[in-house]
Design goal:
about 240 residues
Length: about 240
């Protein structure tokens, strides 16, 4: 074996992957788009699935989002008590409103309102999609101190992880896999990684390749799985009932 081979450029870049090496921080735009999507999905829900006037919660959420963008307009490199509290409050608001809508959806599907089959089935899809977004945002905000800490702090100073990604244990795998591991490339998860965790948890009702480590991570994943399971079972039962008529 030729131990003097030059490492390909793309492998060298993998070992020096952003954002941690240059401390640029994670891009703000994906989180803004995810939040706005959740808000729009809520605004599109039928009236019977809203527990407060339609525009009250979206207005509060936008009011929280604007200063968060002002603190970190392009890259997430700064954090203070206000921005941390505001970002967590925003996620909690979206999460509570979506769980409340799920409860109203359950009530609607098991009462006479179930005759409105088409709109309610579409609403179930909206609630399910919003759940994926909000739990992905929650995982992203909580794991290892949040998006700012994950990129700006030294790895030795990071809080304990809430999730174990495959990259965290790939350093002893084959070379082309090990070069992208956390130990070799200083990899940290971004919002897309947490949204993927949320998608798989919401569809498989259990963790797949990413394992929850902390109690709060397990609790959040349990709530998401139960909510997704309830939505799926009700939709299937309603669809079967419609077909039997």
């Amino acid at each position: 074996m030729d131990s003097g081979r030059k490492t390909p450029d793309h492998r060298v870049k993998a070992r020096e992957r952003l954002p941690r090496h240059e401390r640029r921080g994670e891009a703000r735009l994906p989180a803004v788009l995810a939040t706005l999507t959740a808000i729009l999905l809520y605004l599109a829900l039928p009236e019977q699935l809203l527990f407060v006037p339609r525009f009250v919660l979206p207005a509060l959420e936008v009011l929280l989002l604007i200063p968060l963008i002002a603190v970190n307009p392009r890259r997430m490199t700064r954090q203070n008590r206000f921005s941390r509290t505001g970002s967590l409050t925003l996620v909690v608001l979206i999460g509570i409103s979506n769980l409340a809508s799920l409860g109203l959806l359950v009530h609607a599907l098991v009462t006479d309102k179930a005759q409105q089959g088409g709109p309610l089935l579409l609403a179930a899809l909206q609630v399910w999609a919003t759940g994926i977004i909000v739990f992905g945002l929650a995982f992203w905000e909580l794991d290892r101190g949040g998006p700012v800490v994950r990129t700006q702090a030294e790895r030795s100073e990071l809080p304990l992880a809430d999730f174990r990604f495959s990259q965290d244990e790939n350093d002893d795998a084959v070379e082309e896999v090990a070069d992208g591991s956390s130990r070799t490339s200083d990899w940290v998860p971004t919002l897309m990684d947490y949204l993927y965790v949320s998608v798989t948890n919401s569809t498989a009702f259990s963790p797949t390749d990413t394992m929850p480590l902390s109690t709060r991570a397990k609790a959040l994943m349990a709530v998401e799985s139960i909510a997704a399971l309830i939505t799926s079972l009700l939709v299937i039962a309603h669809a079967v009932g419609v077909l039997d008529k």
